[in-house]
Amino acid sequence: MIQRSVNLNRLPVNGIGLIRQIAADEMLRRRLLDLGMTANTPIKVVMKSPAGDPTAYLIRGTVIALRSDDAAKIIVDII
Amino acid sequence: MKDNPIIALAGNPNTGKSTLFNALTGLNQHTGNWPGKTVTNAIGKFEYQGRTYTLVDLPGTYSLMANTIEEEIARDYLCTENPDAVVIVTDATCLERNLNLVLQIMAITDKVIVCVNLIDEAKRKGIHLDLAKLADLLGVPVIGTVANTGAGLDNLKSTIALMVAGEISTKPRKIISANPQETDDNHDQIVSAIMATAEEISHQVITVTHPDPHQFDRKIDRILTSRIFGIPIMLTLLGLVFWITIVGANYPSTLLQEGFSWLEGQLFDFFVWIGVPDSIRDLLILGVYRTVAWVVSVMLPPMSIFFPLFTLLEDLGYLPRIAFNLDSFFKKACAHGKQALTMCMGFGCNAAGVTACRIIDSPRERLIAIITNNFVPCNGRFPTLIALATIFIVPTVKYSSIAAAGVILAAIILAVAITLGVSFILSKTILKGLPSAFILEMPPYRKPQVGRIIIRSIFDRTLFVLGRAVMVAMPAGLIIWILANTNISGQSLLAYGAQFLDPFARLLGLDGYILIAFILGLPANEIVIPIVIMSYMAEGTLIELASLTELWELLVQNGWTWLTALCTMLFSLNHWPCGTTLWTIKKETLSWKWTWISLITPTVVGIVLCLIVAQGSRLLGLI
């Protein structure tokens, strides 16, 4: 199976990706890691807010909302 | 053995940590701040088998790697204070993520008890946990609890007692160099290692029997955050909260006023009986007592309705959804999405709203939220808005409560628009910068705990705010009384002040008395209208008119038009924060500079708006 990498904000609702890397500044990267966004963790798009941004993601059993600018810094492999 | 063992309570946010803290300590607790920080610090005591234990509630954090002030405080406390035991509260419905913190704390200390909370909720969702196995894998005691009902608390207390007595030996699972003090260099690998362990452990102890344990939450979320219904539902809910507050506060307010006026008679007689000089008696009763009585009877009922309702929404888990719905507006204003929450809190009380800004961890966005909080009208300003809306803007008396609610809703939408506009201007001028990352956890919806809501909203919010308001109302009553009753050549100082301010006030569509009432209303916005009435009636004390019709007649006799009412409402929405809020801003920002800016910003906005509306209406010949 060929895996395609995208920025997390490109993933459609209900889409699932495997986290490959976080290309954010140190501060944000650490905070995202602490929420469990380590490499190879599945992340699912749960829903979008009324304006389409931010978006809520399911990660390790919890729902976390991120703005698209921040989500764009998370690279995932589509599965 | 130490006399007073210290137990630290750690855990992720939204795990029911504070519920557990309250369940253990009851009312035997006090809250303050961590030294030099604006992070709440709660310390409580509980007794078990004749021994008193001190419980220190650490800030809720996801990690100890010191990314935020909260994490720094929690880490420093655990590393330096060496508590006799650390209870880590985890959420049974998402144990895996919670284990991150558990594994980090176990790297610092061996004296760890893991408390798996919300096991009832997990069971309902079809998530089953093997706690014995978890204890085995972690090497520390594991206690299952339902903090809401108190289930498991005895077990937790006895485990704490045994650990303090040194009768439990733990063998915590250590991950090499997971110690958060030493992880600066290879943060990534360490976090990954911890997460991998957390994953491995949770796979071994958790069995999920439901195909999608969080299905119910997702269903509700889809409605409450839907593109079409999300914002209308939010407005309806908030409108409902205001309507219940307006209608519900009416009767108890009258009752309190009657009670206070009866007590005033008694006090008066008592003062006469013990022979207090007339001037001092009047100063104390008609000045100080009446002002305080007015503030209490006008503020207490709406606050004790609004805050529990607001706390109910908070407890249900709705507030993060509001932030989720509104974030895009705040993003456009270069502000933080959580500002939506502090803004909502401001509707209850701006001082409480300013304190709530602690949830925003970026200093720039937090300051924006603090400075703009005053743009939303608090409970103290609602009565003014409602009274003026009812008698001037809405011509018929029929359905007045609904019509007034409509005007109030318009005022609120204007307030939110101004908040966003000013936030934008601030972030382009004195608080320049890019929006910081917005990370918002949306916890599962939870069944609210009515008892806890009442205790929290009454003690933490209502009485706290009321206490401060009374403290400022007392000296204010004294000053107003002196100003209104010191006559120089047949005119009171208040009248001189009003005359002086009159030309400027007229430019704003107000008059001198209204403007001086706003100035004297600095201690509490509730007393603005009473001061206006008092001045017009040339009576030296606060009075209340029996009906709105009488108020209307009095105002019209003194030259009020719909424009005066409109400008008064606008100025009420946009002027300096009340004394209590300013005091809170000083305490929260620890800076006079930002306190002054918080005072000047809304004042300038109010002056400009009133000037435009008043002069515009006159130019257009509307009046």
**Tally of DSSP helical segments of chain B:** 24
Spatial strand order of the main sheet of chain A = 1-6-2-3-4-5
Number of strands of chain A: 6
Biggest sheet statistics of chain A: 6 strands, antiparallel
* Oligomeric status: heterodimer
Helix share bin of chain A: 10-25%
Average of per-residue pLDDT values of chain A:
90
Q: Describe the largest sheet of chain B.
A: 7 strands, mixed
Number of strands of chain B: 12
Question: What general outline of chain A do the C-alpha atoms trace?
Answer: globular
Rg over CA atoms of chain B: 28 Å
Question: Separation of termini of chain A?
Answer: 9 Å
Task: Return the string of H and E elements of chain A.
Answer: EEHEEEHE
The end-to-end distance of chain B, rounded to whole angstroms, is 81 Å
Shape of chain B: elongated
Strand proportion of chain A, as a percent range, falls in 35-45%
The Cα radius of gyration of chain A reads: 11 Å
What would the average pLDDT of chain B be, to the nearest integer?
A: 86
Number of helices of chain A: 2
- What class, by secondary structure content of chain B? alpha/beta
Fraction in helix of chain B: 55-70%
Structure description:
The complex is a heterodimer of chains A (79) and B (623). Chain A has 79 residues and is of the alpha+beta class. Helices cover 16% and strands 41% of the residues of chain A. Chain A has helices at residues 26-34, 68-71, and strands at residues 5-7, 16-22, 42-48, 55-59, 62-66, 74-78. In chain A, strands 1-6-2-3-4-5 form a 6-stranded antiparallel β-sheet. In chain A, a hairpin with a 2-residue loop joins strand 4 and strand 5 (62-66). The radius of gyration of chain A is 11 Å and the shape is globular. The relative contact order of chain A is 0.34. The mean pLDDT of chain A is 90. With 623 residues, chain B is an alpha/beta fold. In chain B, 62% of the residues lie in helices and 9% in strands. Chain B contains 24 helices and 12 strands. Chain B has helices at residues 17-25, 69-80, 95-108, 119-124, 131-138, 153-164, 187-205, 215-224, 230-274, 278-316, 319-332, 339-348, 350-356, 363-372, 382-393, 400-428, 450-485, 493-507, 512-520, 528-536, 548-557, 562-573, 579-589, 592-619, and strands at 6-11, 29-33, 40-48, 51-57, 85-91, 112-117, 127-129, 142-144, 206-208, 439-441, 487-488, 491-492. In chain B, strands 2-3-4-1-5-6-8 form a 7-stranded mixed β-sheet, sandwiched between helices. Chain B has a two-stranded antiparallel ribbon with strand order 7-9. Chain B has a two-stranded antiparallel sheet with strand order 11-12. In chain B, strand 2 (29-33) and strand 3 form a beta hairpin. In chain B, helix 5 runs antiparallel to helix 7 and helix 9 (230-274) crosses helix 16 (400-428). The longest helix of chain B has 45 residues, at 230-274. Chain B is elongated. The N and C termini of chain B lie far apart (81 Å). In chain B, 48% of the residues are buried. Classes of the chains: A alpha+beta (79), B alpha/beta (623). Chains A and B meet through helix 1, strand 3, strand 4 and strand 5 of A and helix 3, helix 7, helix 8, helix 11 and strand 10 of B.
